[in-house]
Structure formats: structure tokens, C-alpha cells
Amino acid sequence: MLRKAVMVIGAFILFLLQCCVFTKLNIGGIVPNLILLITSIYGFMHGERAGVITGFVLGILFDVFFGNVIGLHALILMYIGYINGKFCGIYYPEDIKLPLGLISLSNITGSVLEYIFTYLIRGRLHFGYYLIHIILPEILYTIVLTLLIYPIIVVIFNAFEKSSKKKEAS
Amino acid sequence: MSPIVKQKKEKFTLSGKYLLLIFTVIAVVLMIVTYGTTAFDGPFNAVVGYVVVPFENGISKLGSWLGKRSDEFTDIKTLLEENNALKEEIAKLTEENTMLAQDKYELNSLRELFELGNEYDSYNKVGARVIAKDSGNWFSSFIIDKGTNDGLALDMNVIAAGGLIGRISSIGPNWARVTAIISDGNHVSAQVLTTGENLVVSGDLELMGRGIISFSMLKDDENVVTEGDKVVTSKISDKYLPGIIVGYIQYIENDSNNLTKSGYITPAADFKYLSEVLVITDLKNTDYENAED
User: Fold this and answer.
1) Is B133 on the interface with A (CB under 8 A)?
2) Bridge partner residues of B190 (DSSP)
């Protein structure tokens, strides 16, 4: 129960950081995608359900504030969370290659889908420009932040697992 | 409670697959409903506003503090240069101002003759603070800390530093979302101040990085519109009040149809460092049906 509460608070904090702090700490106008980052992390750490719920809730929050249509980002994020959840079985906290790979892939997928649904649909065809100026910098920034945020999340949840194992042993 | 309820392992949980299916249906329904109508705007915006906005208010203070620190390092040099340039500009402007004051005196007397009110000055304005920005990289919109409780409403125009910023595109009791005119897919009907020719100003993501916006559909048969001309919102715009400065024409070229022109505009407002904005609480009256002929 406490673990779930911490998960919810963590996701909420990242959402607030994204729209209130990182928009001001942007690099060349590019903001990292922390919402997608946390959806992906919860997905492969805690399974499909966690990924789907995180993606849906954060997506709806994002849509209400910034989206033109409520539900689009929820849909994209939720599927990304679900697919990340499929990798829960082969995930080990010590190995950072899988999380990094998954987060990068998720970010690319998310950005391309975003491009298709909000730009291509209006006839903006310069995909090359958007790829180089928006998508790739965003992924780079997100990966750098993954290296900072991911260890913190691992430490927090390792602590929870240890305490629950102690309870079972005693 | 009865002991039967307390059985632990048989707790009912939906598997990820079904959860995904249910949420997909919900999201698709929401998308369809919100695409055409604003049915969910009221309740959704209210609930989310009361839960999230207080946090945003607090955290955005932290954010602007951090942002300021990081800017300070890079800005000191540019500030010094800017300071010198600004001093020169002040001298120029004071000179210009005295001339304008004379012109205004003349203008006022002429206006009295024509019985025209000075519309731009008479707009009621309310100040608001920017508390959050669009967290994605695709569109440009931001959240301000006032909403319907403070007398704001949908489609109200937002200005800052004398230039048009955008309009309120979504609103809750204690927050409002402002879509900037530089946001991709946003269009403003405007006119060139000198000639009165209409044009359409459109935001474009590719130009956003260069700090400019594009315009199109300018009819200018006599080639009188030149670079540097002032562009203001036009009288025929649906959502924007007339006479608000949008920016200055930076580049102009003929369209391939040889009838219209298009090009780029430098916005009058600085979109990069927005922290306070003014919301004009007058709404454009587009109630044609009730208007008297």
C-alpha cells in the first residue's frame, strides 16, 4: 500500500517537475519527456498493469492541461506503458542497458506517434526537420535525465523490497 | 466486517490486457466527445484545477528560481551589451516620444471630430502569472493562475509587453490555458497598419526556434507593404480584438500565384521569457444575429 502511495506521489512530482521546472531549464528550447520516462519505468519495473494505469492517468492530466483533445496522450502513453510492462520478466535492476534501451525506444515511438497524430494529420510533411530538431534532442535530454532519475527510483524500491522480505522472514 | 471479506489471496484484480482494453475504450470515447464538444471541459477542468494547480503554483516558483540562476550565468555578458544598446534606444525613444505626443494631441482632436474612441486604451485588463508551460516540445501553450473565479472566460485575448500573446483556449475555476500565436496550427487574422491590407498570421514549429511567425494571403497589388511595417489584429477577426500589435514584417515574398504575398513576422512580444501577462477581459462581440442592422 505504502509502495503504491510512493509510486503515485513520484509520478505526480515528475509531472509537476516537467511542466513547471524543466520548461524553464530547457536546453535550446527542448524539454525532456519525464511523463513518458516514468510511464516506461513503472511499466518494466512493476508490470503491465502499472504501466497502463500510469500512462492513462498522466496522459489524461497532460491532455486536460495542454492537449487539444482529451485522451490522445492517454492512449499513446498507456500503450507504451503496456508494451514496457511486457519486459518486466527479463528486467533486473542492476542492468541499466535494458531500461535505457526501452526508454529510448519508447520515446522515439511516442514522439513519432505524436508527430503523426498532431502534425502529419494536418499535412506537415517535413518529418526530417522535426526528427532532427525536436525528436532527437528530446530523446538525448531524456536519456541524460534517465541516468539521474532511474538510480534514485531503483534505490527507493529496493528499500521497499528489503523491508517486505524482512517481514516475510520474521 | 465479516471474516469472509478478509480472505486475502482471492482479491479480484484485472489483468493488464483487460485494463488496457477498458482504458482504450474510455480514451477513444473521450477523444470523440472532446473533439467536437466542450462537454467535459467544465467538470474536468474544475477537478484537475483544484488538485493540481496549487502544486503547480508552488513548484513554478522553484522552477523560475532555478531558471533564473541558470540564466544568470549566461546572461551577464549579453545583458551588458544589451544595456548599452538599450540606453541608445531610450535616447531615441524619448525623442520619438515627444514627437508622438505632439501627434497624439493632433490625433485626439481629429478623433473628436470623427467621434472615434481610442479602443486599445479602453480595454479592461487583468494581470496574471504564468505557472506552467506546455511540457511537450510540439506546441506552445501555457497555464496562468487565474480562471473563471477571477472573471476570465474562454477566448479572451492575452497580451504582454504590448504585443499579442494568444488567447485562452481552455479554462477552469482557478486556471486557464493560453495558446500562443506562435503555436503550430494557430492562425490570427491581422492587417498591415499602414495600408490596412488583411493577412493571416500562422504559427509554425519550424520557425518557432528562430523566434518568428509566418504570414500569408497578403494582397498587395501596389507593392506598398515593406519590411518593418507594423501588423495588428484585424477588425474582421473572430476571436481577437482589433488593433493589438502582433509584430513587424521581417521578410516578404510573392506567392507562386502572383496574387498574394507571404513571409515572416517578428512578434512584438517576447515569448521566451514570459512570466506575467495581461488578459483583456473584453470579449470580441461576434453576436451577428442580435446585432442591429
Assistant:
1) yes
2) B199, B233
Find which of B138, B167, B168 to mutate to test the A interface (most A CBs within 10 Å of its CB).
B138
* Long-range contacts, B39-48 (Cβ 8 Å, 24+): B40/A70, B41/B170, B41/B171, B44/A64, B44/A70, B45/A64, B45/B170, B45/B171, B45/B172, B45/B173, B45/B175, B46/B172, B46/B173, B48/A61, B48/A64, B48/A65, B48/B172
Q: What does the block give as the cell for A154?
A: 531503483
Q: Count of CB atoms within 10 A of residue A55's CB? A: 33
Residue B203 gets which letter from DSSP?
B
Nearest to B178 by CA among B153, B128, B144: B144
Q: Facing residues of A30 across strands?
A: A27
B52/A49 touch (CB, cutoff 8 Å), yes or no:
no
State whether residue B275 sits within 8 Å of chain A by CB: no
B45-77 residue pLDDT tens: 888 778 788 888 877 777 777 777 777 777 777
The three-point CA angle B28-B178-B54 to 5° equals 85
The pLDDT tens digits along chain B (293 residues) read 445 555 555 566 778 788 889 999 998 988 888 887 776 677 778 887 787 888 888 777 777 777 777 777 777 778 888 888 888 888 888 888 888 887 887 777 666 555 443 445 677 888 888 888 876 777 788 899 889 988 899 889 998 876 888 999 889 888 999 999 988 888 899 988 888 888 999 988 888 878 789 998 888 888 888 888 888 888 888 888 888 888 899 989 888 888 888 999 988 887 877 778 888 888 877 665 554 44
Task: Indicate whether this complex's ipTM tops 0.90.
Answer: no
Q: Is the pTM of this model over 0.90?
A: no
Which domains are delineated in chain A?
A: 2-164 (1.10.1760)
Rounded Cα–Cα distance for residues B213 and B193 (Å): 17
Looking at chain A, which residue has its C-alpha nearest residue B132?
A20
| C-alpha grid cell, residue A77 | 502513453
Angstrom distance (rounded) from CA B97 to CA B103? 9
Name residue, grid cell 479480484.
B12
Average pLDDT, chain B: 80
CB-based contact, B22 to chain A, within 8 Å: no
